[in-house]
Queue: 4 jobs
Job 1
Amino acid sequence: MKKVITYGTFDLLHYGHVNLLQRAKELGDYLVVAVSTDEFNLNKKNKKCYFSYEERKRLVEAIRYVDLVIPEEDWEQKVNDVKEFKIDTFVIGDDWEGKFDFLKEYCEVVYLPRTPEISTTQIKKDLKK
Ligand code: C2G
């Protein structure tokens, strides 16, 4: 069984996120998604989420491509996650191109094109109009 992992906040879940998760699942048979916790978002990613971790976890778990959701609590957990879950492929959007190449020592690393026209930031801006 080929196992894939990806990471993200997934706040105000939108079709760009789903596009990524669909393509991530196509790279294997089992997809683990590490969803950033509220603390990690606030303290390390400088992101204030609309939905709590529990709500974002519930939403991501409901996506047909996702097999398991785990918490992302810090930047340093990826190597351990790859080992613990016996991951074959790490995948993330190409806004992170090159940032996780250190994982190539442990698994395949794939950067996928983002869905260009949508983002949580844009949604929040549009809602303010
Ligand atoms: N994404 C995408 N297209 C968009 C928006 C997001 O393909 N229009 C992808 C991102 O590239 C990422 C995933 O969807 O792979 C989740 O996006 P975010 O929730 O913004 O995640 P991010 O804040 O980039 O967190 O340790 C890694 C970080 O946790 C990644």
Job 2
Amino acid sequence: MNKPFMPQLVYYEPRALEYPLGKELVQKFEKLGVEIRQTTSHNQVRNIPGENELQKYRNAKSTLVIGVRKTLKFDTSKPSAEYAIPLATGCMGHCHYCYLQTTLGSKPYIRTYVNLEDIFEQANKYMEERAPDITRFEAACTSDIVGIDHLTHSLKKTIEFIGQSEYGRLRFVTKFHYVDHLLDAKHNKKTRFRFSVNAPYVIKHFEHGTSSLDQRLEAAAKVAKAGYPLGFIIAPIYIHEGWEEGYLEMFQKLSAALPAEALNDLTFELIQHRFTKPAKRVIEKNYPKTKLEMDEEKRRYKWGRYGIGKYIYEKDEEEQLKEILHRYIENYFPQAKIEYFT
Ligand code: SF4
């Protein structure tokens, strides 16, 4: 992805104009000459152009809805944070394995919420309830927020809001390298900036429409120099031919790219590939030619919430993945903290 995201079509909810960010965004897209339509509610967003479902899906991923977040109860976000802070939903990327395909279902367009004042007020309540314990907020549960933030700056405002708080911490993860506007944010080291990284094979075959590994690593180096605590999420860890060398190559690149500033406070989160039966059906529909291996016979079934179990790697494969990736991290980044393997 060599150009920052720009929607082809924009919708706005009338109530969005009651908020400064809503007004600003509508004016911005009018000036840019992007087609913009009013809608009574995002559920009314119909007529996404396209001759068939697949085209509509693709076009929806370049449609932006400027809306108001009505539900202010935040979802929980284990294991990496207490709450998901809702800034946006949807993503312009085309990662075949992305779980948003199932969670957003028929609404894959991107929504950005402009009532930041309400969202921050709610976040303050959660922090007060837990004080003096720290409250961690995850900003990338339902979107790749960095990928759209050059347009909205709502993430930047959230970084500064949490930066001023006493008991708040913020984290998010991205596969995009458009970070320049975030470098001067007053983060006060309370935001952990994470990049999602993977072996070259996985990026090449399954992460279309995202930034390359080199671009992500260049951005990670900038972020570390700007004083942010840095992290990497390796997900999905995926077994493919030559995976051991693939992940080794990835660590070699990481090690060459990261400046000294990154090393004092560096974290890794490791998530093996998994899929559910409903997800498999959606993936095969949206990406009919995918090479993503989703053979239930080769996997171990793990019971999940709401009765929907997931298929993860067999125990011996899981142990091997864990052992090798841990070894690479210990070799290349002995000071880093491995937060979890799941
Ligand atoms: Fe999904 Fe992240 Fe890929 Fe976007 S970048 S499609 S949120 S996995």
Job 3
Amino acid sequence: MTRPLPDELASRLRTSLSAAGLEPPAGLDLAVVVSQDLRFGDYQSNLAMALAKATRANPRETAGRIVAAFDPTGLCAPPAIAGPGFINFRILPEAWAAKVAGILRDDHCGVPPAAPSHRIVVDFSAPNVAKPMHVGHIRSTIIGDTLARVARFLGHDVITDNHIGDWGTQFGMIIHGWKTILDPSALAADPIHELLRVYKEVNALAKADPAVIETCRRELVALQQGDAANLAIWRQCVEVSKTGLQRIYDRLGIRFDHWLGESFYNDRLAPLVERLRAAGIATESDGALCVFFPDHPRLADKPCLVRKADGGFLYATTDLATIDFRLGEWNADEVWYVVGAPQQLHFQQLFEVVRRTGRNPRLVHIAHGSILGQDRKLMKTRSGDNVQLVDVLDEAVARARAVVEAKNPDLPEDEKQSISTAVGLGAVKFAELSQHRMTDYIFSWEKMLALHGDTAPYLQYSCVRVRSIFRKLEGPAPAFATLDPAGLVLQAPEEIALARQLARFAEVVPAALDDHRPNLLAAFVLELAAAFHAFFAACPVLKAGEPARTTRLALCAATDKVLTTGLGLLGIGVPDRM
Ligand code: ARG
């Protein structure tokens, strides 16, 4: 019995349907779900009701026939019928024991690999360069990284690609500023900072003087036409920005397989547009080239512009070339875009154009909401600037450091540092991942950096707590990887509840990808920690007699493994001590 419990129950339900001579209508969902009220059982199915409705039979009677033919051996008590025809399953203690042993044996904690495995490109973070990442970039960066980790864990072939905006109109201003107000020594000392200063200053000048705008526009056109001096400046800006970005990703433990930014596609835009025109997909309109969607319910009046009348290409053109590359060169089955909700129309148009070309990959816009300031407008500091991501990370680590100093002043310096880093950055990540990705939320230092309540530090501390049990263990720990489930005897309700939560990991991890919702996984690890603390308060471990002692040690070891793995999928590390 290595399948997740709902799958195992569904498969036995299928067998009992045919044994009872009941023919399920095609497409009937046998989905077995976790019970809302655990007094009635651990899992529940409304199969009998759905079947009775389709065949105009009596639901309770149908449930009776299914239950009578159901073989519960080794898995659950004989199922019970409740209310209008729900079928309730109570899992047997020995089946929970088998789950716990299975988790300890398997390096994927009992989570089955996805079948079939897909090649998935995950496009996330993708900031526009030459401006530092601000706090708003945290969402795509952290959600995207987690989704990529989960997909990889499930056995998909994942390619992460940072599609940075390295060819935008911002370069007109930056090149003009570089030529007129750059301070070379400041650039050498802190390049990102100096670039930002230049950018902001030119921005302010441009607001006051239209002539500056015109100069910047000319610098941009010169760059686009291949002017050697401007290209050299551009190249330096991109290099400097990438170095700064890499430093942030390193701190966050985020790795990209590729950094194919917008500029990578420059040479591919003209031929792409020509192909679309030749295929009759793009048509001319007032000198521009557009793709029209006359029959589309939402896009009928929203054509996708692929070449402007002046010959310039657009964000959408670059993204079309990017899709061609990912499908053609990388043979991707799926492309996921973790990008804010305001770009929804852009992606709808993009995906529709791809469909027009006769291809049908799975393209998903994984949208997310915004981070707002206290006034519910887009996040700005009092000076009007965006809060920079680096500052959030620094502050998080500093706050964690203060707590470590207070609690554990005698730890060696390097350990203090590594604990503060894991705790501070973990807090920032968890604050993001525990929200539904579509909610807009108000930025709050308190919330993002909280160390108490439903936070990463609480979860990390829970792991440390479990591990401390093993540190106190006298004599060798049981050989968990080869444990015989027959030696595990679960009795106390807290033991059962903990085992139930551990077994749910196999259900939650795939579910987090169904709708690309890392918050399901975040909620799961919180519930697991709560189940552990309830267990640990009620059930002594080291002082218990056998078989309780081995059983409880196994539950502790499985908790450590699942919590650590679950936090790892959220990109959150666990220190040994706290
Ligand atoms: N650079 C864009 C921005 O900051 C996001 C790019 C997202 N990815 C893409 N393939 N369009 O808004």
Job 4
Amino acid sequence: MSLSRHLIALSAAVCLAAGLAAAPATAEPRPRTLGELARKHHKYFGSATDNPEFTDAAYLKLLGSEFGQTTPGNAMKWYATEPERGVFDFTAGDEVVAFAKAHHQKVRGHTLVWHSQLPAWLTERDWTAEELRAVLKNHIQTVVRHYKGQVIHWDVVNEAFNEDGTYRESLFYKTLGPGYIAEALRWAHEADRHAKLYLNDYNVDGIGPKSDAYYTLIKQLKADGVPVEGFGIQGHLALQYGFPADVRQNMQRFADLGVEVAVTELDIRMNLPATPSMLATQATWYADYVKACLAVRKCVGVTIWDYTDKYSWIPSVFPGEGAALPYDENLRPKPAYHAIREVLGG
Ligand code: 9MR
């Protein structure tokens, strides 16, 4: 090979090497995840999860990468954590917390006092008020102490009101009267002074009798010095029932009471089969809901009630309905996913 040919070959090799070295700088940057985009607004974007899903590697990969927060869908409920009186089992909850920790995710604790998913030992006998108070206090404090420092929030009382704003006649209400809510909050606070304590419910997206009941209750609890620090708006919507246009105003009035607000279980179901136009409407609704949270400084984040239609609770509870989440059953992002990204600035 002549000298000039040598030089040409050499310079080609240098250019190639330089080109390769420069490649990472010119390559498309990795798109920000929903969790990262939300963090820029000082909020989190999360997904609920459930232990049976932990065998699905593709599912876990997205759960761990895309979201900055998780909520165990069932693992911390009473039936799971205290299956026999005084016998506690934190296996399922610990599994979710360990996953979250490994993926730098915040965890919301869900839930301590709820009328549903209670163990049989609790529901299948009558309790005096004194007995039930002791059982409730022990349950709350044992669970909260176990997760101390590991959860940012507790849904201390879940779904305490009926649609008309009257108290739900749960075991706790019937036996202890409405004062069980303040007591539950005080007991939880004694066990973990740092977790933010929430009341959480569905159909409280807009202003109406049910959210008014929470407004009045939280105002009273604050006046009485009870440690209530957050209002959880679950956000289980359905296309056929319309979008709660005043969700931002509703969030703001709770913020003005001095509590934070979180969207805790967002999903938007529809009658199947889903059409492109229904999915487009769903995308707008997700975007508008997230926008409302972004507009309220004390709205701390949004959690969707799992992220894929593969594991949504909807089809089993509302036959003929579904397609409620931003990813389809094959873990492919739907229009809703892209709409949420856009609102978050992605
Ligand atoms: O996602 C939960 C599902 O796996 C359970 O079967 C169901 C039982 O009621 O509870 C679901 O989660 C609920 C949440 O704990 C409270 N708000 C309503 C949610 C949907 O039912």
